[in-house]
Amino acid sequence: MTNFILLHQCCVVQEAGENGGSRVELELIFVNPAHIETISPAPGSVIQFSSGECVEVSEKPGEVVELIQGMQP
Known about the structure:
By secondary structure, the protein is mainly beta. It has one helix and five strands; from the N terminus they run E-E-E-E-E-H.
């Protein structure tokens, strides 16, 4: 059985209109830690997967590692 960790992906949302700005929203994502290749510090972390895909999450690298280690029996 595959275990997943729950992280918060950072998504930039553009506002419509002349005065439209942008804001960051957090979306929940479930990640299979077996596919994580690297975790780099950013404002939170950038996670690169073995597929080459990258996602930015709000959790710090140490927090991601703690979540993964918490899955160990």
